[in-house]
Write a structure and sequence with these properties.
Helix content: under 10%
Number of strands: 6
CATH superfamily: SH3 Domains
Strand content: 35-45%
Shape: globular
Strand order of the largest sheet: 1-4-5-6
Oligomer: single chain
CATH class: Mainly Beta
CATH architecture: Roll
Structural class: mainly beta
Number of helices: 1
């Protein structure tokens, strides 16, 4: 059996193009992960507040929000405001 090496955030970014982000809903609710960028796409998962996701670097503006693709712990899309990233909803 092969040993699994844990990698830090810098190594992850270099290998997968990803960035580790902490989910912050601002409340004790889970953050919705959708199959595509926008509210019309079905919910495929939910991630507990405070957990970590890995973004891919892809973003799309839809439904008045900026949506970011995530690759882990599931593959899908999340609104940027939930990840501490730019979100159209909060633009002046």
């Amino acid at each position: 059996m092969t040993d699994i090496k844990k990698i830090n955030d810098q190594e992850l970014e270099n290998v997968a193009g990803g960035e580790s982000r902490t989910v912050n809903t601002g409340m004790k609710i889970e953050a919705v992960v959708r199959s595509g960028a926008g509210f019309s796409f079905p919910q495929i998962s939910a991630i507990k507040n405070g957990n970590t996701v890995i973004t891919t670097g892809k973003s799309v503006h839809a439904d008045g929000r900026t949506w970011y693709e995530i690759s882990a712990p599931v593959k899908g899309w999340m609104a940027g405001g939930l990840l501490g990233l730019q979100d159209d909803k909060y633009r002046a």
